[in-house]
Design goal:
The protein is α/β, with parallel strands linked by helices. Helices cover 38% and strands 14% of the residues.
């Protein structure tokens, strides 16, 4: 049995005629940059999300950087985020001369612990960047309440959660990334909505902010060869837009398939002492970019299982092996013990194959081998 961590190959095979036609149409048109395919995808994604504006860009890292630039944060301003995330979330903050201020995560959701945010706020705090990790939205209601109380921007890092939803206290349900001032995502090939190369996007219901985001993406220009602000060159090419627009029609199906695979995993691992399956909040739709278990006995056992699974042809991942506050690039005077939950999760987490093409036989094979090794 061939097991892939992410199976973009089978996914392509199912829609290859439609996909090939979309790519060929762009090639035949010659409109490789900002062509009709980009405009069509942008409009369709905005409709899917319920967003006033979507601005495509080159990748998810650029999306985060552009958001911070468009909000005109200044060097020395502080941005609150989590240390248990991919480096890009913190990287762009540091690149702009801003200061990342970490808040620990919860050990169930892996997302920012909202009860600890207020204690991290100072007079220099200007924004919060919640990360919707592994496809589970962060707890946005208290985040927005805090942001409104202290007049802070909220930039949602939705790189792993497109298609996920969150229901606010009002009963209104929103797509991931649409609750804060701006949402950002990545279209890296392994994402729930993945391109065949790099890509990203930002979205917002603030049309003035959207105009500024577009200007930042276009070298700081809103009129050719005239530059009113410092910007970057970050755009989604037309071929990737055509690919994404083709796949967008299937995104809900892809996410439903992921949730079904997660359900099968959950049943296989239910009641196993020392093994913690992913938590699902009652007011969220978790779309399982990753299916991440916790091996409570720690790194030695976790790493043994990973090694043995690999020898049996079953891939796995550790996201993330070292919390950002312990990485030399992002220490900022933090030390071991400052964020104990993030540190403990780095010792315990293991992600199993998760994608839209997993079937029951594959899940049973993966889970059976995992349990055999776990029980040794």
């Amino acid at each position: 049995m061939t097991i892939r961590m992410v199976d973009t190959i089978t996914q392509y095979e199912r829609i290859k005629h439609e996909m090939n036609a979309a790519i060929a149409e762009v090639v035949a048109s010659g409109a490789y940059i900002n062509g009709p395919a980009v405009k069509q995808f942008t409009a369709n994604l905005a409709n899917y999300l319920g967003a006033e504006r979507v601005i495509p860009c080159a990748n998810g890292t650029d999306a985060l950087q552009v958001a911070l630039m468009a909000l005109e944060l200044q060097p020395g301003d502080e941005v609150i985020t989590t240390p248990f995330t991919f480096a890009a979330t913190c990287e762009v903050v540091a690149l702009l001369g801003l200061k990342p201020v970490f808040v620990d995560v919860t050990d169930d959701s892996f997302n920012i612990n909202t009860s600890k945010i207020e204690a991290a706020i100072t007079e220099k705090t200007k924004a919060i960047v919640p990360v919707h990790l592994f496809g589970q939205p962060a707890d946005m209601q208290p985040i927005m309440d805090i942001a409104n109380k202290y007049n802070l921007y909220v930039i949602e890092d939705a790189a792993q959660s497109i298609g996920a939803t969150y229901t606010m206290a009002s009963g209104m349900t929103y797509q991931s990334g649409l609750i804060g001032h701006v949402g950002t995502t990545s279209f890296y090939p392994s994402k729930n909505l993945g391109a065949y190369g790099d890509g990203g996007a930002l979205w917002t219901n603030d049309t003035q902010l959207a105009d500024k985001i577009l200007q930042v993406c276009n070298h700081g220009s809103n009129r050719r060869y005239y530059y009113d602000m410092i910007g970057v060159n970050s755009r989604l090419d037309s071929i990737q837009a055509a690919i994404l627009d083709t796949k967008l029609k299937y995104l809900d199906t892809y996410n439903t398939n992921r949730i079904a695979a997660a359900d099968l995993y959950d049943r296989a691992f239910a009641g196993v002492d020392g093994l913690v399956t992913p938590w699902r909040s009652g007011n969220c739709r978790h779309v399982f970019h990753q299916y991440t278990l916790r091996v409570k006995s720690g790194r030695k056992k976790r790493d043994f299982i990973r090694k043995e699974l690999g020898e049996r042809g079953i891939p796995s991942g550790v996201y993330y092996p070292v919390s950002l506050h312990l990485q030399p690039a992002y220490t900022y005077d933090n030390k071991v013990g400052d964020f104990p939950v993030s540190e403990r999760l780095s010792e315990e987490v293991i992600s199993l194959p998760m994608h839209s093409e997993l079937d029951a036989n594959q899940v049973a094979y993966i889970a059976g081998n995992f349990l055999e090794l776990f029980n040794q």
